[in-house]
Design brief:
By secondary structure, the protein is α/β, with parallel strands linked by helices. Helix content is 44%, strand content 21%. It folds into 2 domains: 33 residues; 76 residues, no CATH class. The protein is built from 6 helices and 3 strands. A 3-stranded parallel β-sheet has the order 1-2-3, with helices on one face. The longest helix is centred in the middle third of the chain and has 15 residues. The chain is elongated.
């Protein structure tokens, strides 16, 4: 599997929700008001990226050790059909986003995917996600 980071398009983001106390939220608003950040989201993204940067060595070592794809792994119908024909099953491990093409049937996914572990986001049809449910870690 590819250990190189694949760039994810700017539109490929996921919304998260966090709870903050009123004082922390006020501090964020103050920094936005003073022009340090364009908005709350800008500050929060920057803070998360800075925190992740402090752990970059651990992340790189773990990605390598666990043989994770870093970034985006696109799983096509053709790839799954080839695995099925070869009598093999894919074991998908991704840090970022795994995307199973919309034309993949639940039956094909069950036959060709042995396991799937995604630290991040899994995009697949609801039927494929339901079929792979026990194999998703």
């Amino acid at each position: 599997m590819n250990l190189q980071e694949t760039r994810i398009k700017p539109g490929d983001t996921e919304k998260i929700t966090i709870n903050l106390g009123p004082v922390d939220l006020g501090k964020i608003d103050l920094l936005v008001q003073e022009g340090f950040y364009s908005n709350r989201t800008d500050l929060i993204r920057t803070a998360i990226r800075n925190e992740l940067a402090t752990h970059v060595d651990v992340i790189k070592e773990t990605v390598s050790r666990k043989r994770l794809v870093l970034g985006l792994q696109q799983v096509s119908r053709a790839e799954l059909e080839a695995a099925r024909t070869a009598g093999e099953q894919l074991h998908i491990q991704v840090l970022g986003m795994a995307s199973i093409d919309p034309d993949v049937t639940p039956e094909l996914a069950m036959e060709a995917i042995g396991s799937i572990s995604v630290l991040g986001v899994l995009h697949a049809s609801p039927a494929v996600k339901a079929a792979l449910g026990p194999r998703i870690h």
